[in-house]
Design brief:
It is found in: Cell envelope. Keywords: Metal-binding, Signal, Transport. Pfam families: ZnuA. It is a single chain. The protein is α/β, with parallel strands linked by helices and 428 residues long. The chain has 15 helices and 8 strands. It has helices at residues 2-30, 34-43, 57-67, 91-99, 127-131, 145-162, 167-194, 208-213, 222-229, 236-247, 263-274, 293-308, 316-321, 328-334, 386-397, and strands spanning 50-56, 71-77, 102-105, 124-126, 199-202, 217-218, 253-257, 279-282. The strands form 2 sheets. It has a 4-stranded parallel β-sheet with strand order 2-1-3-4, sandwiched between helices. α3 (57-67) links the parallel β1 and β2 (71-77). The protein is globular, with a radius of gyration of 29 Å.
Length: 428
C-alpha cells in the first residue's frame, strides 16, 4: 500500500511538471504575434532617399527631377566626351549599379553594359522596355516625347513602390513635370502649324525622334543612313549623294552629331557651310550646363527654329515678355499651388530642381515661403528668341545659338570623368 502511494505521488508530480512546461511554452508562443511583427516592419520602413543609378545622364536628370529630395541619383556616363555606345564601365561603376535600389537604363542596345551584370531581382526602369523598342531600333529614345512621358510615369511608379510614404510627393512632381513637358510641346506644335513641308538630313540619326515630333521629313540619303546605322563607313557614292542634296538646297537644315565626328561628317558639314545650309549641332549626352532633360531639348528646338525661321515668335512685345526665356504668366498658371509638390534637394543631393536653367527657355516659379529648400513648382518652356538666347546661353558656350545646342564649342568645357564618380546630376 505504501509503495502504491509513493508511485501515485510520483505520477502526480510528473503531471504537474508537464503542465507547467506546456504553460511556459504557450506563454513563449504568445510573445511573437503577427501584430508585433507588423510593428517591427513599420519601424524599419525606409525613410532615407532612394539610391538611383542611371546609365546615362539624360535619364538620370529626369529621375533627379521627378525624385527631388527623395532620391539620390548618380549617372555613370555624364559627359559629352564619352560615347555611351562604346563605354566600358569600371569596377566601381558596376558596383554602383549592383548596389542601387533602382537602375535607370536606356536599353535597345545603347547601354547593354549597364544591365548585363545585374540579377533578375534588380529593379530596372528601361526606356526601351517602356516603349517596346529592341536592339536595332534607333536607341536615342530621350528625344521622343512619348518616351519621356512613359519614362516619367515608370520612374514615378518605381519611386512610389520603393518609398510608399512619399507617394503623394512623387505624384505631385509628375503632375507638374507633365505640365512643363506639355508647355514645350505646345509651342513646338504652334511652330509646326505654320511651317510645313520642312526637310532635314543628318550626319548620324541622333535626333531622329525629335525631328519626327517636329514634323520634319528625313531626307538623309538611304545608303548613307544605312551605313552609319550599322557603324560602317559611307561609300563615296553615298557621300556624293549627300553633298548633292545640300548643294541643291533640298533640305532646310543639317543635323550634326558632335559626338560622332569623322572625315565624312567634316566633309558634309563643310559642304553645308559653303552652301549656306544651316547646321544644328546636337550631342547624344546632355551637356553639363543643362539643368534638366527638357531644358536641354527645349534649347535644341529653339536652335532648330532659329535655323529655319529666326524671326518666328520674336516680335517686339513677345521678345520683351520672354527676355529670360519664360512666360511668367504661364509659369504662374503652371504652378497650381502645390507648394510641397517636390522639394528641391539640399546641396549634397544629386538632381536638385531648384536651380534656374540659364541655357534654355526655362525658369522656375519663385517660392513664396522663403525657405532655402524651395518647392519645385514646375517650368514653362516657350520660344526663346535669338537675342535672349545669346544673352543667356551662348556667352558661356561661345557658340551661335542658331546652330549650337551647347554641345559644340561649349562641350569642351565638360571635363568630367567618363564615369559618375559621385558627381552631382544632371550631367556633371
Amino acid at each position: 500500500m505504501g509503495i502504491r502511494f509513493r508511485h501515485c505521488l510520483r505520477y502526480a508530480a510528473a503531471a504537474l511538471s508537464v503542465t507547467a512546461l506546456l504553460t511556459v511554452t504557450a506563454c513563449g508562443t504568445e510573445e511573437s504575434t503577427p501584430a508585433d511583427s507588423n510593428e517591427q516592419q513599420t519601424t524599419t520602413e525606409q525613410t532615407s532617399p532612394i539610391t538611383v543609378v542611371a546609365s546615362i545622364n539624360q535619364w538620370g536628370a529626369l529621375a533627379a527631377e521627378l525624385g527631388g529630395e527623395d532620391v539620390t541619383v548618380t549617372s555613370i556616363v555624364n559627359t559629352t566626351n564619352v560615347d555611351a555606345h562604346d563605354f566600358e564601365p569600371k569596377t566601381s561603376d558596376v558596383a554602383k549599379l549592383s548596389k542601387a535600389q533602382i537602375v535607370v537604363a536606356n536599353g535597345a542596345g545603347y547601354d547593354s553594359w549597364a544591365t548585363k551584370s545585374l540579377t533578375s531581382s534588380s529593379n530596372i526602369v528601361s526606356a526601351a522596355s517602356v516603349m517596346g523598342a529592341v536592339e536595332g531600333d534607333n536607341p536615342h529614345l530621350w528625344f521622343s516625347k512619348d518616351a519621356r512621358v512613359g519614362m516619367a510615369e515608370a520612374l514615378t511608379d518605381a519611386f512610389s513602390k520603393t518609398l510608399p510614404s512619399k507617394k503623394a510627393e512623387f505624384k505631385k512632381r509628375l503632375k507638374l513635370w507633365k505640365q512643363s513637358e506639355q508647355s514645350m510641346e505646345d509651342w513646338a506644335d504652334d511652330f509646326m502649324k505654320s511651317h510645313t513641308d520642312l526637310a532635314y538630313a543628318a550626319t548620324e540619326p541622333v535626333a531622329y525622334y525629335l525631328m519626327a515630333d517636329l514634323g520634319f521629313k528625313d531626307s538623309t540619303p538611304k545608303g548613307y543612313a544605312q551605313s552609319t546605322a550599322s557603324g560602317g563607313e559611307a561609300a563615296p557614292a553615298d557621300l556624293q549623294s549627300f553633298q548633292k542634296i545640300i548643294e541643291d538646297r533640298d533640305i532646310d537644315l543639317l543635323i550634326n552629331n558632335t559626338q560622332a565626328a569623322n572625315e565624312a561628317t567634316n566633309l558634309i558639314t563643310g559642304t553645308a557651310g559653303r552652301s549656306e545650309v544651316p547646321v544644328v549641332k546636337v550631342s547624344e549626352q546632355m551637356p553639363s550646363d543643362s539643368k534638366t532633360l527638357d531644358a536641354w531639348i527645349n534649347q535644341i528646338i529653339n536652335s532648330i527654329v532659329d535655323a529655319v525661321d529666326p524671326d518666328y515668335g520674336c516680335d517686339t512685345d513677345q521678345d520683351d515678355e520672354s527676355a529670360d526665356g519664360t512666360d511668367s504668366d504661364n509659369a504662374d498658371k503652371t504652378a497650381d499651388g502645390d507648394d510641397e509638390s517636390g522639394s528641391s534637394s539640399d546641396a549634397g543631393d544629386t538632381g536638385s530642381t531648384d536651380e534656374k536653367s540659364n541655357d534654355s527657355a526655362s525658369t522656375e516659379s519663385d517660392s513664396s515661403d522663403g525657405n532655402d529648400d524651395k518647392a519645385y513648382q514646375g517650368i514653362t518652356y516657350i520660344r526663346e528668341c535669338k537675342s535672349s538666347s545669346t544673352n543667356t546661353s551662348t556667352d558661356e558656350n561661345g557658340g551661335d545659338s542658331t546652330s549650337d545646342d551647347g554641345s559644340g564649342t561649349g562641350a569642351g568645357k565638360d571635363d568630367a570623368q567618363s564615369s559618375g564618380e559621385d558627381q552631382p546630376d544632371p550631367g556633371k
